[in-house]
Amino acid sequence: MTDDKDRDVQGEDTTETSNDANGASDQRGFASMDGQKQRQIASKGGKAAHEKGTAHEFTPDEARAAGRKGGVVVSQNRSHMAEIGRKGGERVSRDRRHMAEIGRKGGEAVSGDRQHMAQIGRKGGESRGEGGVKTQPPRRSDVAPRPEAPQNAPRTEAEQIKKAG
Question: I need a labelling partner for 23 at 20 to 30 A (CA). Which of 4, 82, 155, 165 fits?
Fold first, then answer.
């Protein structure tokens, strides 16, 4: 049977056999069969062992340990892991409603942390050249409403000069 690393993304067997000068393969018997035929034979052997009662059945702890070991080996292939992540991200991001929900939950979680939000506000002020004001901005309820300007009053300095002039 071939290793997972010998399979391409679609699960096809990509192992190659070398041939000698006469064109004869250096693999014989089971090894010379294609991957599908090998899997069929191995499957029959596994089923027979289970029927006979001689097959090894993993305990939950053994299965966890085997899965962890396999995960460690697979995760060492960084390009493979990047491809998995890319495919997953593409699939999830197609669902706009799901993405909106993720954003909403993230925004709620972050905005609940007042210290974090204050830090973000300070950094934003610093980037606009406001010198990193240390005081809290007034709340809406603390700010007096702006008086309404008369309809025909000049709104800009240029309009005031023009009207006075």
Answer: 4
Cα–Cα distance for residue pair 103/106, rounded to 1 Å: 5
- 55 plus 74 within the same structural domain: yes
User: Where is average pLDDT lowest: 12-26, 48-62, 71-85, 143-157?
Assistant: 12-26
**Are residue 34 and residue 80 in the same domain, yes or no?**
yes
Map tokens 């009053």 to a residue. Answer: 153
Question: Into how many domains does the chain fold?
Answer: 2
User: DSSP characters for 33-65?
Assistant: S-HHHHHHHHHHHHHHHHHHT-S----HHHHHH
Q: Radius of gyration of the chain from Cα atoms?
A: 34
> Greatest CA span in the chain, whole angstroms?
108
Q: 108 and 73 in one domain?
A: no
CA dihedral 52, 55, 59, 64 (to 10 degrees): -150
Residue 86 lies in a domain: yes
47 and 72 co-located in one domain: yes
Residue of 41, 16, 39 whose CA lies nearest to 27: 16
Domain that holds residue 99: 95-125
